[in-house]
Amino acid sequence: MARCQTTNTHAAGYLLTQTRNNEKGKPTITYMNEKSSAAPLKSLDEWEEDVLRRYPDPDSIAKEKTVDEYRNYDAPVRDTVKEFYRLNHTYQTFDFVQQKRKEFLSFSKAQMTVWDAFDFLNGLVDDSDPDTDLSQLQHLLQTSEAIRADGHPDWMVLTGLMHDMGKVLCLFGEPQWAVVGDTFPVGCAYSEKVVYPEFFQQNPDYANPTFSTQLGVYEKGCGLRKVTMSWGHDEYVYQMLKDYIPEEGLYMLRYHSFYAWHREGAYDYLLDDHDGDMLKWVQLFNPYDLYSKNPTPPNWNELKPYYESLVKKYLPAELKF
Predict the structure, then answer these.
(1) Residues 304, 65 contacting (CB under 8 angstroms)
(2) What percent of the chain has pLDDT over 90?
(3) Which residue has the higher pLDDT, 4 or 311?
(4) pTM of the full predicted structure?
(5) What angle do CA 36, 256, 110 make, to 5 degrees?
(6) What is the dihedral of CA 55, 273, 230, 107, to 10 degrees?
(7) Is the pLDDT of residue 279 over 50?
(8) How far apart are CA 257 and CA 48, in angstroms?
(9) What number is the average pLDDT over the span 168-181?
């Protein structure tokens, strides 16, 4: 295992810690807010592991544990996740999201093939974390292969393969709380169904006379397509692929982390009929996202011809980031 070198610089109010792998020369980036502690998650996978604890697969729950025990938020193992959500809920304001949309949705950071992008994304692997031995591509292949095994359309297989591509935001210098985490609408009152809702009280929008009302800047029944969501990898990958994947797949990409909606039924006053039609597709995708991970890596050499053909069918030779 290659040793890592770490350099520190200051940027945008954060102390940036850039770790470069000597063997591959790819940067992995974490952030320390100068006003708080170091980046709370050891890896981005830690957020997904917490989602699994909140929404465990009934078929895989150990017999000696109950669902309530899985959802014990007072357990010490959740301390880092709790700090992550404190930062997320404090700083994800309406203005912050508008700023990030302007910064990243011009897609002027880079241009590369899908396979080069996966190679780039693999820079997120944390060699010090024993729970993240598989590369990002292998994690995504497990999702897409589970979808493929159940006989779903090939566009849904591609959606499974690409759904976490937006995590490259972390490699472009974004802090963890602006890349992953449960998403939620900004510009209106926060729902109690969002995880750790108490932390929203520290958000400047919480007391804003407009943003603190139920509808905020929106109209009743306006539809999620007119609602601005908290910033992260979901919106980024949706915007990246919106011209290439069917509508059902786009909803999977854009809202797969919006658990307050597709798992808890919140924000019904913002929904329109189209959202109702699309909900079943997001719910169909969710188990493949959560429950397909296992420690056995897919055989990429065997799968490569199929996925190269699939990507070529739907996507351009290069994607803009």
Answers:
(1) no
(2) 62
(3) 311
(4) 0.79
(5) 70
(6) 120
(7) yes
(8) 10
(9) 91
